[in-house]
Amino acid sequence: MKILSYLLVYRRFLLIVLTPLLLLPLPLIIKTKEAECAYTLFVVAIFWLTEALPLAVSALLPAFMFPLFGIMTSKEVASAYFKDFHLLLIGVICLATSIEKWNLHKRVALKMVMLVGVNPAWLTLGFMVSCAFLSMWLSNTSAAAMVMPIVEAVAQQIIRAEAEADELELSCSNGSINPALELDGRHCSSAFATLTWQCSNNVGSTVCTVEKENEKGNEQNLPPTEAERKSRKDKYSGIFKVMCLCVAYSATIGGLTTITGTSTNLIFTEHFNSRYPNCQCINFGSWFILSIPIAVTILLLSWVWLQWLFLGFDFKNMFKCGKKKTAREEASSQVIQEEYKKLGPISYPETVTLVLFILMTLLWFTRDPGFIPGWSSLFPNYITDSTAALVIGLLFFIIPAKTLSRTLNGRNTVFGYIPLITWKEFQSCMPWEIAVLVGGGFALADGCEVSKLSDWVASKLTPLGSLPLWLIILISCLIVTSVTEVASNPATITIFLPILSPLAEAIHVNPLFILIPATLCTSFAFLLPVANPANAIVFSYGHLTIMDMVKAGLGINIIGVAVVMLAIMTWIVPIFDLYTYPSWVPNIPSTNGTGL
């Protein structure tokens, strides 16, 4: 047993040592550049999947293994670690840093929730929409970390309201008198027109009568039984689970809609543009057009799925609009309004950040809209989305965070010059691990090209062309969805892109037909708390069990893959003319049909 315990403690160390040794026969026996590149790829992939080493450290392995194998020079490998992707990431993180520093994200989230109302179903949808919107521009982790404290405050307020209501009913059943029900100092007149508890003893038993005054008159009801109270507690426990899960899932779903929304989209964009430089079809606008219907559909279906799974289909209460709020809804509304009041009026830094955010978005959308020439046509072949992101990002280091304030005697008070964000604040928000990880993925992709490993893989995958195209896409989606549950999303997409691109070329299919759905499905890590940071943040609050996430996440995974399959076979086809094999793809002769 001691040996097993030692092995368990040092399992990561053993994995680090044994993996290169066990795979060493591959380059020693075959002795080709393809085998040496495959050896490097396998070692890095295993370290990424198991996280035996930190992801960024594993990503640095190609930097010395490729030169040692004679595949690429050190200068060539080093150039792969910093590309256009990193400039785009820097500009986006500048925006995200300012948004989080000045609490603009919290103001947006609370305002959206206030607009949809506090009915449990609509409250859940409000949290989902606000969190999804934030994750379009911030990291999924930041969006979940910001919205979850608001959800927790609302949940605790509802629990407190439930406890006071139950205590009131219990005291009434014991013969005491409570003239009115109050929650946090507020009369719940919105839940009941008037509540008057009258208790009297009749034949040794206590009879409790509830009088409710409304337009139809007084109506007497018996107090809820213990079973009814337990059922109500179970119902609100289900509401808390739905509210928590909606934050975790919507943070991921919202990231699908923009290239900058999640690291997998950024990695795909850079890989695609590097492998197919003559194709200019993937940009911020085209990705938004193809992905926004997918994200909205998945978001709505996920909302319905979570409602049905934990609360059941109670359409009468789920969609009751225009009715008076219950005591619990009043408690939710109160805490949300109080949180919004704490923010105060919108400040100068918030206003500037909002203006720069809108300006950056407009520059992205209008750079190359497709149907008309964009502003990038003034600088042909020189401008990318990273250019706009950097221009706006640098403004956050220039524009002062404070303005001159006028005192009572009419004089201006001069503050020290402090920009909207500082370099230290930017560094704390910059995901350096992701930056290095993506660089390692680009180095691996370049190595596969130089060593001709990609061509070898393509030749071996050619027989798959006999399968129907939809089946090839479905299999690739299911594989990446399964792997991403146990491996990080960036590592998963970095491993599979160099495999799926040659596959598409080998079967003579537009690479976007396979790469787009695979990229989207890589984000579908919904099953486990460790699948992605957003899940872990929500799970840490203690309202959920592992089985809650597994049951809910399995349904979301199925919904996500189904919607992506529907999208890639319908509305995405005309956007990129997917059924036509493009001229910018290397034309590899194939003896097999594609099953179209």
TrEMBL record:
Membrane topology according to the record: Multi-pass membrane protein
Intracellular or extracellular location(s): Membrane
Top-level division of the source organism's lineage: Eukaryota
Pfam families in alphabetical order: Na_sulph_symp (PF00939)
GO MF, one example: sodium:sulfate symporter activity
Protein's UniProt keywords contain Kinase: no
Similarity annotation: Belongs to the SLC13A/DASS transporter (TC 2.A.47) family. NADC subfamily.
Organism expressing this protein natively: Lamprotornis superbus
Gene Ontology cellular component list: plasma membrane
Protein's UniProt name: Solute carrier family 13 member 1
InterPro entries referenced in this protein's UniProt entry, alphabetically: Na/sul_symport_CS, SLC13A/DASS
Lineage of the species this protein comes from: Eukaryota, Metazoa, Chordata, Craniata, Vertebrata
Main subcellular location: membrane
Transmembrane segments: 12-30, 42-69, 81-99, 119-138, 239-267, 287-310, 346-366, 378-399, 469-500, 512-531, 552-576
Keywords, alphabetical: Ion transport, Membrane, Sodium, Sodium transport, Transmembrane, Transmembrane helix, Transport
